[in-house]
Backbone:
């Protein structure tokens, strides 16, 4: 599959991040806990340089808990603070706020010496599309200040949002990078919905997903769909799932498109299981 998506507004977002970096005290980098590596834009490291950063591992409720802990140890080894968050249940949000104070202490002390007191902490939130930036903002502020959608590319421009009297957030549109040199990165982004489904061949994508899930945990597929996975190709597994889910059309053929959409939807919602697709090299 040739997966590539770089809408024009993403180039503008990159320039906007550079321009606004001097206005903020800390950057929240939101990533997907299921694909911590693939959901990190490699260009962000270059742009942020030494700016205080907090990696927020969102959708942690969908990821394997043990592997998420390993990822936190990995980021800690690199000298980066991280926190596990589930924006839907508000898990980890208080820790986000508390860590913001810790990571900006030096800046706040500098401002105090200049006689600037009680100025809100200013944070910029960056991340790939559909990773949950707007949901995080709305959960932190407890109001619907940012547009939310389960489709990537909803936020099209920068917007300042008051989270509380001592914390302000600059939201930015999701940003991918122009070319996915690693095909696995492109697949991971497609699996988790960071790339618009309209741009993808869903059946081929799901066959790739089943291959990956069969390697990571056959049990999750067998238990969810009550099938036997061993010694079967990903396409044969998809056909079995289609039979179990009643995706049968005239002549007894399996509607593989319908079955594919079921598998993809259930993976993204965590119904198949808490699955992490990437492991830290640590």
Residues:
């Amino acid at each position: 599959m040739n997966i590539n998506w770089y809408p024009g507004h993403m180039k503008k977002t990159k320039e906007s991040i550079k321009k606004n970096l001097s206005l903020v005290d800390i950057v929240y980098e939101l990533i997907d806990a299921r694909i911590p590596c693939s959901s990190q834009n490699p260009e962000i490291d270059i742009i942020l340089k030494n700016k205080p950063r907090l990696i927020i591992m969102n959708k942690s409720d969908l990821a394997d808990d043990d592997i998420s802990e390993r990822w936190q140890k990995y980021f800690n080894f690199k000298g980066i603070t991280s926190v596990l968050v589930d924006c839907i249940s508000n898990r980890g949000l208080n820790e986000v706020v508390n860590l913001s104070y810790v990571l900006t202490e030096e800046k706040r002390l500098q401002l105090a010496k200049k006689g600037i007191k009680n100025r809100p902490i200013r944070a910029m939130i960056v991340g790939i599309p559909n990773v949950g930036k707007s949901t995080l903002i709305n959960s932190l502020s407890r109001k619907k200040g940012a547009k939310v959608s389960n489709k990537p590319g909803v936020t099209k421009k920068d917007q300042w949002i008051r989270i509380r009297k001592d914390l302000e957030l600059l939201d930015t549109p999701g940003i991918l990078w122009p070319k996915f040199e690693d095909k696995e990165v492109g697949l991971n982004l497609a699996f988790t919905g960071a790339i618009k489904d309209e741009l993808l061949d869903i059946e081929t994508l799901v066959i790739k997903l089943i291959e990956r899930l069969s390697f990571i945990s056959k049990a999750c597929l067998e238990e969810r769909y009550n099938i036997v996975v061993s010694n079967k190709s990903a396409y044969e597994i998809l056909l079995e799932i289609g039979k179990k889910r009643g995706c049968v059309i005239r002549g007894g053929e399996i509607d593989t498109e319908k079955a594919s959409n079921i598998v993809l939807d259930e993976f993204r919602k965590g119904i198949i299981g808490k699955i992490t697709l990437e492991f830290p090299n640590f």
Q: What stands out?
A: The mean pLDDT is 86.
